[in-house]
Amino acid sequence: MKHTPPPWRVTEKQHPTLSSIVQFRIDSPTRALMFLGEVWNKERPDDPTPLEEVRANFTLASCAPDLLEALEWIVANASSRRWNACREKARAALAKVPS
Question: So where are the chain's domains?
Answer without folding.
Answer: 1-62, 64-99
